[in-house]
Specification:
Elements: H1 2-36, E1 40-49, E2 55-66, E3 70-72, H2 74-83, H3 87-107, E4 114-118, H4 121-125, H5 129-140, E5 147-152, H6 153-156, H7 160-172, E6 176-182, H8 189-194, E7 199-202, H9 204-207, H10 214-230, E8 233-236, H11 242-250, E9 255-256, H12 267-276
Parallel strand pairs: 2-4, 4-5, 5-6, 6-7, 7-8, 8-9
Antiparallel strand pairs: 1-2, 1-9, 2-3
The chain binds ligand C2E and magnesium ion (MG) (3 copies).
Length: 284
């Protein structure tokens, strides 16, 4: 009896595992094709000046229009792309597309703003990082001061010297550098001093507990004070409520990103957002 049950459990477990393996395998094969077949799309989430409430940038966030599974979020396929060595072509596509779109918007007369692109750790470590960025700028005609690159804390620790060298080059080139998901990684505060960054994005996990958790509020306040004395601009991620907005603004956070102002939008929806908020003349 016990043996049967054990066997049975093993069998169920195995099928489940097999299924997962199959899903990953087939999604992986699809992803390779999907990148070539132009199934990736970028959505853009507005970044708003906390004081003027005008747009100052957008973060480009990739989605995958899968032929049968629908629109997939990056959490479903970015880790897969990293495992399958597809993150380099994927990342290069994102860079090119984001720069091209931003340049097209500038021609349409949008307010002065930047497009922020997320870089995976492997992209930063890769020898082609600098040339991919240069190619994306050159192909689109976008000037470097309209491009922002987001890096996370975790990868930086692996190869500090090489990383610092590359990031320094990009920053001297006029590109804005932001530390993403600040507070969730393993970095020490000394990295903030060593890394050539302009901005720091406070992770949503801190912002969501404003008004609920005094400790999170203290951490945010301390981070804002520290950034002020280091001359770093702070972006709050995941601001959803008026209370979160006023807390961040009143404590000196300059830029707000989150559902309070807008979810990530398709390129067309972003134009509608700018028109409806009076920041762009409607096309005639
Ligand atoms: P991230 O860079 O930290 O991006 C912010 C994420 O928070 C986005 O999720 C965004 O939709 C979500 N978000 C923004 N405001 C709010 C809010 O008010 N409430 C809530 N609940 N969520 C909010 P998304 O688009 O699903 O992206 C998830 C992650 O996938 C990103 O986190 C980033 O790490 C990664 N990712 C997205 N696009 C790319 C890409 O092109 N390349 C790479 N390497 N990673 C990417
Ligand atoms: Mg980001
Ligand atoms: Mg983030
Ligand atoms: Mg995040």
């Amino acid at each position: 009896q016990a043996k049967d049950a054990g066997k049975n459990c093993y069998y169920i477990y195995d099928v489940e595992k097999d299924h997962q393996r199959f899903e990953r395998f087939s999604l992986g094969a699809d992803l390779r094709k999907g990148i070539q077949n132009n199934e990736l799309v970028l959505h853009y989430q507005p970044q708003i000046d906390a004081v003027t409430e005008k747009i100052v940038g957008v973060e480009a966030l990739v989605r995958w229009q899968h032929p049968t599974a629908g629109l997939l979020s990056p959490d479903r396929f970015i880790p897969l792309a990293e495992e399958l060595d597809l993150i380099i072509p994927l990342g290069e596509w994102v860079l090119k597309e984001a720069c091209q779109q931003m340049q097209a918007w500038i021609r349409q007369g949008v307010p002065d703003m930047k497009v922020a692109v997320n870089l995976a750790g492997q992209q930063i470590a890769h020898e082609r990082l600098i040339s991919s960025v240069e190619e994306a700028l050159e192909a689109s005609g976008l000037s470097a001061d309209h491009l922002e690159l987001e890096v996370t804390e975790n990868f930086v620790i692996r190869q500090p010297e090489v990383t610092v060298g590359k990031l320094t080059y990009l920053r001297e080139r006029g590109i804005t550098l932001a530390m993403d998901d600040f507070g969730t990684g393993y970095s020490s505060l000394s990295y903030l001093k060593k890394l050539p960054i302009d901005r720091l994005k406070i992770d949503r996990s801190f912002v969501k507990d404003i008004g609920i958790d005094r400790d999170d509020e203290s951490i945010i306040k301390a981070t804002l004070a520290m950034c002020q004395s280091l001359g770093l601009v702070v972006v709050a991620e995941g601001v959803e409520t008026p209370d979160q907005l006023s807390f961040m603004r009143d404590n000196g956070c300059q830029i707000i990103q989150g559902y309070y102002y807008s979810k990530p939008l398709s390129a067309d929806q972003l134009m509608d957002f700018l028109v409806s908020t009076g920041q762009l003349q409607a096309e005639v």
